[in-house]
Specification:
With about 325 residues, the chain is an alpha+beta fold. The chain is built from 13 helices and eleven strands. The protein folds into three domains: about 80 residues, protoporphyrinogen ix oxidase, domain 3, CATH 1.10.3110; about 120 residues, FAD/NAD(P)-binding domain (3-Layer(bba) Sandwich), CATH 3.50.50.60; about 100 residues, Alpha-Beta Complex (Polyamine Oxidase, Chain A, domain 2), CATH 3.90.660.20. It is found in: Mitochondrion inner membrane.
């Protein structure tokens, strides 16, 4: 039997800050959800950015629930008038809350690589960049090997903290703002067990409030969303703003202990994968919206030959990155 101090989630949940619903909701709902989204501290993360819709609702309406219901109804009616791809209509009709790809999400990037290479693009692997110079209408990229590339437009999808030092000499103003977009390190442990009924429940997973005596961020029940025959696969998340994973061995033991404490799973997994992902999730701390707007304004005002996109700016999820990638391409074509 699982502890009631753990937040279980079975579907979509709308949430807001302490000022809207009180300390209990802030502690047991907002805090773990923010940890689940970006492994961050809800006291530091920008509500205006991650929870933009509800923040606007708070400012415009005295009733969060009534206003949200009204917006959902109006959204549904307006969406009916829009033309959508067949896959989008299927996802909406079937109520998808999560999605994956046959063979894993890496097939998405593999397919992108194949498409690009088949259309004349050149991809340079294991190539360290030492600096980027933005001069007039040209961007010059210098590499550790001594090679240089000059281009009329540059799209940067690397983390802000990686881009910042590359622009320090040619554009210290943008570099300084980029440095303020911090990241946290997260450890992931994937465990595969024999038997599909190991959990004895059907759920997406659970998130852990930071006030609880459990160091993991949460656990995803992978095979509840995507069954894999007679097996149970779990993903344990650890790290973020509070804890720093040290070694894969230590991380594995911490995650196994957490599974034992919360789910009563004490057996050894048949297969496992333990990784420490350094600086992998950007932190949208208070003022993030202003920082992103300032970067966009400088690029626009000075007509800099660069577009920044990726998880550091306008959304940390895969869906966000895909959408912002499309918008970046449209922005490039419009120049």
């Amino acid at each position: 039997q699982c502890s009631t101090d753990v937040v279980w989630f079975f579907g979509r949940i709308s949430f807001q800050s302490n000022s809207l619903f009180g300390p209990d909701v802030a502690e047991y709902l907002i805090d773990p959800l923010v940890r689940g989204i970006c492994a961050g501290d809800c006291r530091e993360i920008s509500v205006n950015f991650l929870l933009k819709d509800l923040k606007e609702t708070e400012m415009k309406s005295r009733s969060i629930m009534l206003s949200t219901a009204k917006k959902l109804f109006m959204k549904k009616k307006s969406e009916e008038k829009k033309s959508k791809p067949e896959l989008a209509r299927k996802a909406e009709h079937e109520g998808w809350s999560v999605w994956s790809l046959q063979g894993g999400l890496e097939t998405l990037t593999d397919s992108m690589v194949d498409h690009l290479c088949n259309n004349g693009a050149e991809i340079k692997y294991d190539t360290k960049i030492t600096s980027i110079e933005l001069q007039g209408k040209k961007a010059r990229i210098k590499m550790e090997s001594g090679e240089e590339i000059e281009t009329e437009q540059l799209i940067s999808a690397i983390p802000a903290i990686s881009l910042a030092p590359l622009l320090k000499k040619s554009h210290p103003g943008v570099s300084k703002i980029l440095q303020d977009i911090k990241c946290v390190t997260v450890g992931l442990a994937n465990f595969e067990y024999a038997g599909k009924d190991l959990l004895q429940m059907d759920a997406f997973g659970f998130l852990v409030p930071s006030s609880q005596d459990l160091s993991v961020l949460g656990v995803v029940f992978d095979t509840c969303s995507f069954p894999q025959g007679d097996k149970t696969i779990l993903t344990v998340m650890y790290g973020g703003h509070r804890y720093q994973p040290t070694t894969p061995i230590e991380l594995e033991e911490i995650c196994k202990f957490s599974l034992s404490k919360t789910l009563g799973i004490n057996e050894e997994p048949h297969r496992k994968s333990v990784q420490i992902l350094k600086d992998c999730i950007p932190q949208y701390t208070v003022g993030h919206n202003g920082r992103v707007n300032a970067i966009d304004e400088i690029i626009s005002k000075e007509s800099l030959p660069i577009i920044v996109t990726g998880a550091s700016y306008k959304g940390v999820s895969v869906n966000d990155c895909v959408l912002n990638g499309i918008r970046s391409a449209e922005n490039l074509l419009a120049r």
